[in-house]
Amino acid sequence: MTGPRLGFLGVGEIARAMVEGIASGPRPYDRILLSPRGRDNVAALTARFPDLEVAGSNADVVAGSDVVVLAVRPENLAEAVAGVSFRPDQVLVSALAGVPIARLREVLGFEGDIVRSIPLPPVSERASVTVVYPDHPAGTTLFDLLGGTLVPADEEAFAVFGGVTATFTAFLDYVRTISAWTTERGVDPADAERFVRSAFAGLAPALRDLDRPLDRLVRDHETPGGFNEQLRQGWFDAAAQDRLRQELDALHERARGE
Q1: Are the beta carbons of 42 and 54 closer than 8 angstroms?
Q2: What is the DSSP letter of 52?
Q3: Would you identify the family this protein belongs to, as annotated (predicted)?
């Protein structure tokens, strides 16, 4: 054996992204074992990476793994682990949103090490920082491989990051709305979408430059009295920002499991 055995309980979209990222390069794991849940994703992954193994049941995943990734829907957790026996020497890495460690212990009856995580789709390309709590070698080994690890001070701070992840589709819908408006003004839909997608994707290098604070990025991308400033001040004014903060507060409470 060259490394620990990694198992996945649930193979939905996030688990699929994780497995793609892990399997597409050098791996620190002796084996990667998938549960039969998420049949289409399992079939696609094993077709691409034939050395992945598919267990007959969730119980078999746990029995054959040292590190177990919990990647089922929170409401399906109890069903997924029914009849499953965890060993005290295992490490559980939870990708369940809004389920605190205390609740996981209650449902699983597990007193070993549990690491919470917030993996995002770009882990499939090893290109996304993952928030984990608490700091644990099993978590850092896994997520450093997938783009990097960020460990907050406590589980309360972890929940703040959980709330942030709820903003992504709102951003995408913002981009979609701009593209739709462009089309409504007579532009060909394909041209509108091509331009708008390209324009927003072009912001990625600036966002990755951690030496440029976000308030500076705003200033760098607008001219006083220019078009960008007009839209930002006219639409995303103080009232709109307060509304966003209120929604984030509500999401934070939900991410805390309350």
Answers
A1: yes
A2: -
A3: Belongs to the pyrroline-5-carboxylate reductase family.
